[in-house]
Amino acid sequence: MQYKYLYTKRAASKIRTFYKNVGKKYRHTYSYEDMERNVRDAFFAIYAIECTLPRRRPTISRWAGYHMANTDKWYYAYTIEGDTITVVDVCHAQNMHE
C-alpha cells in the first residue's frame, strides 16, 4: 500500500531542537552540516514507517493510543487514517523514558 506521510509541527520542532542542542553542546566538533544531515535523516526515516519500520506497541504511557516505530536513533508516534500516516510526536532514543 502506498501511504501519504504527514507530521505535526511538534514532531518537526522536536527533531530540530534536539540537533540544535547537540550543536550547542559540541560546538567545536559538531558542524552545521552535521546538524543538517542528522535532521534530514530523521525526517527521511518517517517515510519508512509501515514499509521497513515495523509497527510496535508504544513503550511510554504518553503515547498510549498511537502506533510506534523506531530507527536506531528516533522513535515515532503516529496514527493511520486510511492511506495517511501522521507522525504526532517523536523522541530521540536517549530520551525515551517516562
Written overview of the protein:
Helix content is 33%, strand content 26%. The chain has helices at 9-25, 32-46, and strands at 4-7, 67-70, 74-81, 84-92. A four-stranded mixed β-sheet has the order 1-4-3-2. Helix 1 (9-25) runs antiparallel to helix 2. The chain is globular, with a radius of gyration of 14 Å. The model has no long low-confidence stretch (mean pLDDT 95).
Topology:
Blueprint: E1 4-7, H1 9-25, H2 32-46, E2 67-70, E3 74-81, E4 84-92
Parallel strand pairs: 1-4
Antiparallel strand pairs: 2-3, 3-4
Helix pairs in contact: 1-2
The low-pLDDT segments are none
The number of helical segments is 2
Q: Averaged pLDDT, please? A: 95
Q: How much beta, percentage-wise?
A: 25-35%
Strand order, largest beta sheet: 1-4-3-2
Strand segment count = 4
Order of helices and strands: EHHEEE
Spatial gap, N to C terminus: 33 Å
Largest sheet: 4 strands, mixed
Label the overall shape.
globular
Structural class: alpha+beta
Radius of gyration: 14 Å
Proportion in helices:
25-40%
